[in-house]
Amino acid sequence: MPRPTWDNLDADRRERVLHAAMAEFGRHGYSGGSLNVIAREAGVAKGSLFQYFDDKFDFFAHVAEQASLGIYAVMQPYLEKADTPFLEHFTGLVEVWIDYMHTHPLERGITAATTMELDPQVRTAVREPVHRLYAQGLRPLLEQAQRDGELAADADIDALLSLLILLLPHLALAPFEPGLDSALALHGTNAATRRRNAHRLVTTLFAGAAA
Amino acid sequence: MPRPTWDNLDADRRERVLHAAMAEFGRHGYSGGSLNVIAREAGVAKGSLFQYFDDKFDFFAHVAEQASLGIYAVMQPYLEKADTPFLEHFTGLVEVWIDYMHTHPLERGITAATTMELDPQVRTAVREPVHRLYAQGLRPLLEQAQRDGELAADADIDALLSLLILLLPHLALAPFEPGLDSALALHGTNAATRRRNAHRLVTTLFAGAAA
DNA sequence: CGCGTATATGACCAGGTGGTCATACACTAA
DNA sequence: TTAGTGTATGACCACCTGGTCATATACGCG
């Protein structure tokens, strides 16, 4: 937990620190991210960081949580059940997600960093609240679609949710990476291609492939 | 590329180094993995590592590639088209994969480390050959199933392949992590549960959920 | 003004990093 | 024996790490 000093902090300064931290942790992950670099980039003494947070982990966890809350706030309006068919609605959701990540490299980076964390302790601690947000946002959507008969009555909601929670953060990176003949490029392409590929992805995931 | 010295090396010694490297890199990833620790655990002077490899990255890349080749060699027999129906065959494949990772923590670790790498340079370089192996193993399977009418004629093989390549390495970790009510536990459970969940996963992925 | 409190600072610490290199050793061939 | 070759070694290097702390500064209150 951040110290009281952090909350009392001048908003500009807090923003600078948060910004620098997202950039650095987003590039190099938790263990690779350097507090020296963050302090320098934020224009703040390293010692100050330890006035705001107990230690590096406390710092990282806060940054990660703030970022995911921000992302959730942006996505929330799109989560409301629309009157469009479920598949269409969901495809739109994924498009918004991909576009957001495409236009917010900082958020994309820190999302990647929390997703890619290896250390089990850090990983668990930092992903738990994020997972909760995902589940909380998506489960009602799936359950409602099932009630409305837009998802098969025997669809495995838990499995689907697990797949989505696993999948979505990867769309923050370039999950289907270049250099592979099988690649579906989602980043580094124009918006139209991103949209088309988002559609292919959702269709494949929900509609299945079995004959 | 490993130096000639590495190939001339006494097999025991080479094995010890490889083993220690997989363990260390598997636990802490590329940038977090310590050459000091690897050398100590392998019972080898650190200087020796630099007789075998140009630098840390050369070392890591070789370890990752060896591991993935080993895994591929184990999986290969199961990749041959069986006379069982495709979905059944593929489910079995995933079961074998999950069981293998479950019983080979070293391979699981290094697979996770290559999957979870953040640095784009390292990530690209190290995952490219791995991706090629995946695609090479899975694409013919999918294409054959489509020719045989076991996958829909309009199934998006590229999208499916991309999903699988993204998904499979995560089964090396605990992709559906504990602590979430939505979790499908694949590790830390008995073989029967793992098999059932592998089945749910494959079914959801291929058979779809749309009504 | 003077006092107290909250915060900012960066020199400093012990310890770890990837990487180097002079030296020692083991082995083969003449 | 001698010379040469390939390899093993660990002390050593410059640099970086997360974290500490004495000190300085700024601010609010009397």
How many domain modules of chain A?
2
Compute the gyration radius of chain A: what is it?
19 Å
Query: What multimeric state do the chains show?
Result: homodimer
* Contiguous helical run count of chain A: 10
Share of helix of chain A, binned: over 70%
Quantity of strands of chain A, as a count: 0
Determine the structural class of chain A based on helices, strands and strand pairing.
mainly alpha
- The CA-CA distance between the termini of chain A, in Å, is 52 Å
Describe this structure as you would to a colleague.
The structure is a homodimer of 211-residue chains. Chain A is mainly alpha-helical and 211 residues long. The first copy, chain A, has 2 domains: 4-62, Orthogonal Bundle (Arc Repressor Mutant, subunit A); 80-207. Chain A is 72% helix and 0% strand. The first copy, chain A, is built from 10 helices and no strands. Chain A has helices spanning 4-8, 11-32, 35-42, 46-52, 56-79, 86-103, 105-116, 120-147, 157-167, 191-207. In chain A, helix 2 (11-32) runs antiparallel to helix 3. The longest helix of chain A is centred in the middle third of the chain and has 28 residues, at 120-147. In chain A, 39% of the residues are buried. Chains A and B meet through helix 2, helix 7, helix 8, helix 9 and helix 10 of A and helix 2, helix 8, helix 9 and helix 10 of B. Chain A binds a DNA duplex (30 and 30 nucleotides) through helix 4.
